[in-house]
Amino acid sequence: MSASISLFTGDWPSSIEADVLIIGSGLAGLLLALQLASTEVKVVLASKAALGESNSAWAQGGVAAVTGANPFDSPELHLADTIAAGAGLTDVAAATSIVSGGARLIDAFAKLGVPFDKNPAGVFDLALEGGHKQARVLHSKDTTGRSIVEALADRVRAAAVGGRLTILENTCAADLLTLGGVCVGAEFIADDGVQQVRASHTVLATGGLGQVFERTTNPALATGDGVALAYRIGAELADMEFVQFHPTALRLDNAPAFLISEAARGAGATLLDHKGRRFVRRFHQDGELATRDVVSRAIHTVMAEYELKQVFLDLRPIGAEALAERFPNIVKTCAQYGIDVFSEPVPIAPAAHYMMGGIRADVSGRTSVAGLYAIGECSCTGLHGANRLASNSLLEAGVMALNLADLLLSTRDKSVGAVGQSVAGQIVIPSDLQDFRKQMYRHAGLVRSRLGLEGLLRTPAINISASGQLSIEQLSARNIYQVGLLIARAALMRNESRGAHLRDDYRHSDDVNFARHLFLSANAGAAV
Ligand code: SIN
User: Fold this and answer.
1) Are 266 and 194 within one domain?
2) CB neighbours of 303 closer than 8 A, spacing ≥ 6?
3) CATH, residue 480
4) What average pLDDT does the segment 55-71 reach?
5) Is the CB of residue 56 less than 8 Å from the CB of residue 109?
6) Nearest to 308 by CA among 279, 339, 335
7) pTM given for the model
8) How many separate domains does the chain show?
9) Domain coverage including residue 476
10) Is 316 known to be catalytic?
11) Residue 130 CA to ligand 1 centre (angstroms)
12) What is the DSSP letter of 445?
């Protein structure tokens, strides 16, 4: 049996045992923890920052789900829109299962007190978003993710008092522990030192990787940790070349790429070029409500055509009253940056937003490594194919959490594996992290080419010996670098254009050779 590589070289780190270790406290991690918390299962929930700080909390638009609130909608129609958005790579079995889990998820959220908006008749108010042929997006104003995460986090905190649930905050996973090819927990770095959690079942719910790119709508903690952790122990990854760029992120010098929700376009907002002309219909008949890959590329093309740094999103067609009522956070945040959305359009440009690929998993989160599960954005079930349908992300995260809870509660094996001897390790990070992120945006962003991608693979890097305690920043830089190179490798393998992946040197889809998933693993190298 091979021992895990540990980054720790001092005395044996403190260790706790759990039946289930959950890494990540966004929607998926919190919901799973809550489902297990009222049972006999001993759970440790580790959060890189404060509980609930996550990509989920930053999601604005909502949760796509068929609940009966729209009499014209059905799971079949939702599935059809999901498949159409996925550009030929949606896993239909996974998508069917996840879409049909929507009603159960919304029911669970309602019981937990998530305040979804309702119309005067008391029925869920449903938004339309790009790629959806029906209004089916449940929302809580324009801060849906935060409403869900806050509701869940409050209950998780309450469940931890005197229960069998332990919460570790500001605790960053450094590496997963394995014994004989089985995942048996993880090693963490926190302010007060190194800690090992030994567990029968280890769940990655670490969210996204937007920070791999210079411009992103994601929070600072979205550094691809789960994907990198899983890859380092040989788990299979899928579809790593498919990164979604959100079309409408604020574009101002010295301001973050704040997301302007797709729901704004669903409510009537229009995209304008520098001369105030609408342009998306030039590229697709659905205009502003085409799928995200199409709209982002349309914006990119117009920006390149006129050498622009940004185009504009005009929110005024929504109407002042509806704008204030439905999008208060967007109104407030834009005002903080000096933009009055009631009287002027908002400068925007695409930004990295969501990873369609990730750790290959089934709809209950099982990965290719025994004892290891992945749920939510860090996983890849194939639901999203080559391009995710708007608001299917929170749906997938929640349904997978419920599925995995069912699976774990029906699993009798609660034995905690022994951990092998620690040995000293070292990590590799880019010599200039900010430059690497800039180059990723430039060469692995909306438009890619062989030369640019090959250049990324030659990024200068440095080794850091783990003789002392590593910082969370160093661990994050290591993951950004590793995941960035995996994206570049996968993008080099896919010699065609499809969904979110556009190769300048292969501008068309090639169904004969590439209507399939690409897999990567540290054990097997690249497999097609
Ligand atoms: C948005 O509100 O546009 C983002 C939600 C999502 O990514 O689906």
Assistant:
1) no
2) 309, 310, 311, 349
3) 1.20.58.100
4) 94
5) no
6) 279
7) 0.95
8) 3
9) 424-519
10) no
11) 10
12) S
